[in-house]
Amino acid sequence: MTRKKYNILRRIREFDYSEFRRGFKEELITHLNTFNKDKILMRIDDTIESIILAIITANTVDRRIISLIYFPHGYKSRITRYLHRLSSYLDTTLITIDPSTIVSSLESYVKGLVNIAKGELYDDVIGLILRKYADEEGYFILGEYTRTSWMLGGFNEGYIKSVDYLPLSRVYYSQLRYIARELRSMPLIRKARNNSMIEKLLKRLKITDEVIDGVIYGIEHGYTDHEISVELDIDENAVFEIRRLVNDNYLRRNRPLAMY
Fold first, then answer.
1. How would you list the strands of the sheet with 40-43, edge to edge?
2. Residue 77's pLDDT is what?
3. Over the stretch 122-153, which tens digit does the pLDDT of each residue have?
4. Which of 128, 142, 145, 132 is nearest to 39 (CA)?
């Protein structure tokens, strides 16, 4: 193992939960104070990012100021029961809003005009509802995306534009396991669903989530594709594919561009 390879993976593996927890609390409270908000709103679903964010937030601030909103995509009783159990465990408010009627109506209007997947339209509507609800009720909206999802473009723009803050944006996807171990809520966390976009990428490239995070870390810190592939012992084509995703989604992460 080369020194650089050790350094790349060490940056991912040496996750200090105490430092993360301290920074999470300090930054969240700072943002609440800065924007004069005293209530938190989160979209909740059965993904691992969403579940972990809900648990750590409930362990950080007064649970009475937290509201979770579940937007069912079709009737899925298992997920509904799971999220009610989570809400009861966290002692937080759970609101359910079914956007299917709105999505179906919009789909009929835009069909033939633009090519948009129903899932994208669904998340666009969720973003609109979240933002309007938060503005009217004085909530601060937290989003669940990790740094991995953010860099790879694994998000819907309509939804992400409604979010005020991404507390997990410094956390790589594979580091969620270190947080999960510390939260002492494994019966709930084990039932969570993995990120589908990342899972598909893992299968296609035949690498682990930790290696994907290592590649992203290398890209962010100026490593060439060849250096990353040698140091992580993976095909250079896999590095190229991940770099392409990161580059292709630059504008999505930074839209709209503005002059200062």
1. 93-96, 66-70, 40-43, 140-142
2. 76
3. 999 999 999 999 999 999 999 999 999 999 99
4. 142
- How many domains in the chain? 1
Task: State whether residue 188 is helix, strand or coil.
Answer: helix
CATH of the domain at 51: 3.40.50.620
Supply angle C-alpha 50, 173, 234, rounded to 5. 155
| CA dist., res. 54 & res. 60, Å (int) | 10
Q: Is 4 inside a domain boundary?
A: no
221 φ/ψ angles, rounded to the nearest 5 degrees: -110, 25
For 160, how many CA atoms within 13 A lie in the half-sphere containing its CB? 18
Q: Return the beta strands (E) in the chain as ranges.
A: 40-43, 66-70, 93-96, 140-142
Domain with 110, as residue range(s), is 16-192
- State pLDDT tens for residues 159-188: 999 999 999 999 999 999 999 999 988 888
pLDDT at 6: 53
Do 121 and 103 form a contact (C-beta atoms < 8 A)? yes
